[in-house]
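Researcher: Let's run the pair from yesterday's discussion. Sequence first, then tokens, for each.
Model: Starting with the first of the pair.
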Amino acid sequence: MDDLPADLTTRPLTMADAPMAATLIGAEEIVALGYAEITAADLVADWQRPSFDPIAGTIGVFEQQRLVGYAAYSGSGNCDAAVDPGRHGRSIGTALARWCQERARADGAPRVGMQVPQGSAADRFLERHGYRLRWTAWDLELPPSAQLDAARVPAGFRIREATTADYDVVWQVMEDAFLEWSDRDRASLEDFLARTLQRPGFAPSHLRVVVDSDGTVVGAAYAILEEGTGDVERLAVRATHRRRGLARALLADTFATLREQGAPRDPRH
């Protein structure tokens, strides 16, 4: 990253830098969204995956001891980056974009991209540099005044907290469902566990499953409860068991569980 201003330095980040990186990313989110979504636990969960090496997969840009730029390449062409809103216009974003492109090419990825808020400075930056819209994602929030009616679990099925014996099947169900549309490699069981059960703050009740009369897991929901907000991160049902109301029942059950645990705001998913 030789094209950075002379007063800036770079180094790979470590797990100890996760809170500092989360603060930086959050500062950009506040400007773009009005609030910060990222937490240090999000980065810890991602960086502790066995397939990810923070030393090789991250770069930090520093102004003295202050982190003013950050990028991480997590594989399959997926990159994340942030620049201190007060340091825009100093070529930091350009240098980080080039770093991400080089990592993706070295990884053999056919393309490189990152998720950014629509209309944000990062969105405009990518568009100026020739990036195009690949897909759109939504964060849907249930207002505090709204209620999600409890959904009836179809006959022959029941919802319960996942147990240790379920984890392998839950991983398979979720990966199968998301890989129906996601253009990426299958995540390993170890990486899945790092991002879910081993995430700071995880509680067993945050992983719910729906099982059939034989006790076979046919759907699952994974949620995060942090800083007063419940987020449904993943919801999946086997293709052979869809259109029976199982996903709705799982979602209603997960919402109720998070509310019982004190989330004053209703979950986004």
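Model: Moving on to the second of the pair.
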Amino acid sequence: MDSLDREVLEHARDWFAAGRGVWLVTVVETWGSAPRPPGALLALRDDGLVIGSVSGGCVEDDLIKRVQTGERVARPSLVVYGIAKEDAARFGLPCGGTLRLLQEPVTDAGWIPEVLERTARHELVARTLDLETGRATLEPAQRGEAFAFDGRFARAVFGPRYRLLMIGAGQLSRVLAEMAKALDFQVYVCDPREEYYTTLELPQVTWLPGMPDDAIAAFRPDAHTAVVALTHDPKLDDLALIEALKSPAFYVGALGSRRNTAKRRERLGLFELSADEIARLHGPIGLHIGSRTPAEIAVAILAEIVSVKNGVEPTQKKSPQEADACPIAD
């Protein structure tokens, strides 16, 4: 669950607790070039205050107007925007785009704290709403599940935010951290070298003390975690990678040239790692975009992480010659 969805649920909980009327609005189906995917969520208060998004803005304006003029649904119901081209233009949808939305009055917000607590523990939670009865249930969800709607039951999946754990607190780490935060990753960094961590000043980045392998073992990376080793020091990077490659982390990468990556794989083979575990290592790290500066390298690394997260094969990799010639990868 990204931070925006969390904000939506937190506001809905607080508004309801304050005695306000609250509605949750969810995108359940789209056709054409709809701007927001199924599962996109917003909360709407009885005075028109809104948080979250289901479109580019004009649909939200219409929803606000409806509730301000007294059109307030009392049970879960569906509303469709953009069937005709005229409607698509009117509501700011791309040509032919259509949204079907689920409007749900919040009559009991007791489930929201449970979802927030469970996702904070890095659990996946599914909430299934029966549109006919208004009854909702919570149950564990599986990685890979997405929002689903069959005409009667809407099943929304709430998951933990993605995390990025960086080994090394150098200049590249600083830039990578800021970009990762913009992509809604929770960012963590571990570097036992005093000359690095004493000057670390990164708001909203969590410092993990100790040696990297111990930090990763205590951190317990899960399927929503990416780990990148950036120190260029085998004593730090390799030990961290051993722990990370044995974990369910969806991405494990290390900075270095193709030549140095091959040497690293040989070293990793001396430890209790299987060939499949070693094969999970992304190296040389990042997509090939001609990166030279720390910011460009950070873009390349995050592009690869996002592609793996989204299930897209990261095909734009360096050739052996380019990788070995890269001055910043050694």
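Researcher: Give me one sentence on the second I can quote.
Model: The first strand starts at residue 22 and ends at 31.
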